[in-house]
Specification:
Helix content: 40-55%
Distance between the termini: 42 Å
Number of strands: 16
């Protein structure tokens, strides 16, 4: 195979096989510049097509798109200067017209064709700018993506549908022929549907949920990529759905998928840990396994740590990840760093003036520096960056809080190292469970599991209190220095004040919920009852947080309705919630002991929890409800609809699942298919 050399930012990268000693790829996402803070935004899972796409002609908000392209070119200059060698941009569905296909799938006046032409012209400018800088471009796609005309042509949405395979080949041919700057395609198969779908008709489906199905998809796409001499990057991201639900972290599953694929045009993309972008987790067990070269996904805008609105250092996390990757994998291919992608929530401070916050920009620069030199002095880099940007005094204070932020977040937001087996069914549970993005959960199952895994509850509580105090000190210090610094200084000081207040809320909630569930685990009702007077104190603190940040578009308050409603129910009926908490502990013990795979761990388990909790209410009709739930669960034709209707209802009343699960990510039908 002939190798072609590409020069990116004065770094030589060899494709398709990287020569020994050559600097690794360093890719960045580029969604942030396309967001408009003047429109509602919440879903950060991809470039904000939900803001850009219009249902009526001209089908795209071309003013926002033009502004996004202009900002993206400036962003491209910045990440190029930081040392990034390429970008990853969403998505295939919005770039394809099928005009080169053997049949006219989209009529001339189809909104999907007309949108694609608009996006192709706009993104073509950005891709040309990247090419002038010597940077690669990769395009993402969900598999399977669809539009209504595609769905009508293909019929049944199935991994074995050969008409879908034809559509995918035609789309990939078109992408590579229209955009010579595009170096390859990045494919996600493990999360789709639900909140990822758009009202104007773009949809995605979890179809390739078996080893055989994914191998067949790779076998369909890879020859097209090889023929065009482009790369196919297959993400191993999976969230428990189907046989491949553990592809993210299971060495056995990883080997089964990639064994035998020796093409130099294939890469695998894996997350740095066995779960999502969380701290305090082991390295991903699939790192360094035989197979295609591996990219590692890192996140500079930390979605689970307030979306880049606050300092959240990646220094130790990314340095340890890169050192480990290089030490264990001679075919390590580089990183894909996320500066804007991931999660649901946040305020305008996420975007800053240029599509990212100062904190994310710093983390982005630091990550690129670590890709060049994993043994770099991170503290010196952070100090130099902050002082150059903000002057000696404020810059030094800013560097100090950024350097400390990782430990303070681990103490005040996380729970430290968790004990016990963290894999349940197909999912490796994260080290952060009590809050999802910005919404503290009232799920008794989550709290029961978390409390059982905390090694030293008293020490954990003391560390949280110390983190609140230290962050308050940092906020006061920065506020005092801000008046003599740059215009951004006041907002940065406010971001640290916001972090201190949010961690204070975390401390208050957890100081009530953790001992309550510990009492439920041990069956000590008297300990439970002694906690009830604290409820009003905690609710008053939540009210103060809400009042302080309400209406703040930059730093919105935490989403507290779920936990506040639970605290109200606990105050009104402590005996009823006690029985439900005991049921949750019993179910967690059962799930951990039985280790049942897949759907029955997560769906049957939660329905069982609801039935058990209903039984513990001692209502007259409980037995009938249990019988109905069991019948619905076991009747395969009814299962999807029953769970879709029943599970949210049960969750709201019995505190089974975090409420945000029903708003984000795949629909329940994707889980129960």
């Amino acid at each position: 195979m002939v190798k072609r050399n590409f020069v990116y930012n004065q770094i030589i990268v060899f494709a398709p096989d990287k020569e020994p000693g050559v600097t690794h790829r360093c890719l960045a996402d580029i969604g942030g510049p396309f967001y408009s803070s003047a429109k509602p935004f919440r879903n950060w899972s991809a470039l904000p097509f939900y803001q850009l796409d219009l249902a009526q002609p001209p089908y795209v908000d071309q003013e926002q798109l033009a502004q996004g392209i202009a900002r993206a070119q400036l962003y491209l200059d910045r990440v190029h200067a930081q040392g990034y060698t390429g970008i990853v941009i969403d998505n295939l569905a919005h770039l394809i017209t099928f005009e080169r296909a053997p049949l006219a799938l989209y009529p001339a006046d189809s909104p999907y064709r007309l949108r694609a032409l608009i996006y192709r012209a706009a993104f073509g400018q950005l891709f040309e700018h990247a090419a002038r800088l010597g940077m690669e471009v990769f395009v993402t796609t969900d598999m399977q993506w669809s539009t209504p005309p595609m769905h009508a042509y293909a019929g049944r949405m199935s991994a074995s549908n050969r008409l879908l395979a034809d559509l995918n080949r035609w789309a990939l041919d078109e992408l590579f022929e229209v955009f010579p700057q595009v170096r390859g395609l990045v494919v996600r198969t493990g999360e789709a549907g639900g909140a990822h779908n758009q009202a104007v008709g773009y949809a995605s489906h979890v179809l390739y949920s078996t080893t055989a199905g994914l191998r067949d998809l790779i076998a369909t796409l890879l020859p097209v990529c090889a023929r065009h001499e482009r790369l196919l990057i297959v993400r191993t991201w999976s969230i428990g759905i189907g046989e491949l639900g553990d592809l993210l972290w299971s060495p056995e599953r990883y080997r089964a998928v990639f064994d035998g694929f020796g093409s130099p045009w294939l890469l695998a993309s894996i997350k740095h840990g066995p779960s999502d972008f969380f701290r305090l987790l082991p390295h991903n067990p699939t790192l360094g396994l035989p197979g295609p070269p591996q990219m590692i996904e890192l996140q500079n805008r930390r979605e689970y740590e307030l979306f880049g609105m606050v300092p959240s250092s990646v220094a130790r996390l990314h340095q340890e990840t890169l050192r480990h990757a290089i030490a264990t994998n001679p075919r390590f291919a580089g990183v894909w760093a996320w500066n804007s992608t991931g999660g649901w929530g946040g305020g305008r401070a996420v975007l800053g003036a240029h599509g990212w916050s100062v904190w994310t920009e710093l983390s982005s620069a630091l990550t690129a520096a670590l890709v060049r030199d994993p043994d770099a002095d991170t503290a010196a880099f952070i100090l130099g960056w902050c002082v150059e940007r903000f002057g000696a005094n404020f810059g030094a204070a800013l560097a100090e809080v950024y350097c400390e932020s990782a430990a303070l977040i681990e103490q005040g937001w996380y729970s430290g190292e968790l004990r016990g087996q963290r894999a349940v069914g197909k999912i490796f549970l994260p080290s952060l469970l009590w809050v999802w993005w910005m919404r503290p959960t009232a799920s008794l199952l989550i709290w029961a599991d978390l409390v059982a895994a905390i090694s030293d509850p008293a020490a954990t509580a003391r560390a949280r209190a110390a983190a609140v105090e230290r962050l308050g000190w940092h906020a006061d210090r920065l506020a005092n220095l801000a008046s003599s610094a740059s215009a951004d200084a006041a907002a940065l000081a406010e971001s640290v004040r916001y972090l201190a207040d949010v961690v204070g809320v975390a401390h208050a909630i957890r100081s009530l919920m953790e001992p309550a569930l510990a009492a439920a685990w041990s069956g000590q009702r008297k300990r439970w009852d002694t906690l009830i007077p604290r409820i009003q104190i905690v609710r008053a603190l939540l009210d103060r947080h809400q009042a302080r940040w309400a209406g703040n578009a930059d730093f919105p308050p935490l989403e507290l309705a779920e936990i506040d409603a639970f605290l109200g129910a606990l105050d009104r009926a402590p005996g009823l919630i006690w029985r439900q908490a005991r049921a949750a502990c019993l179910l967690v013990a059962y799930m951990r002991g039985a280790q049942r795979p897949g759907r029955y761990t997560y769906v049957a388990g939660f329905v069982l929890a609801g039935a058990l909790a209903l039984a513990l209410t001692r209502r007259n009709r409980a037995v009938n409800v249990i019988g109905l739930l069991a019948s619905l669960l076991l009747a395969t034709p009814l299962r999807q609809r029953a769970i879709t209707l029943a599970l949210p209802w049960l969750s709201r009343r019995l505190y089974l699942l975090p409420s945000i699960f029903f708003e984000t990510g795949p629909a329940l039908t994707e889980w129960t298919a």
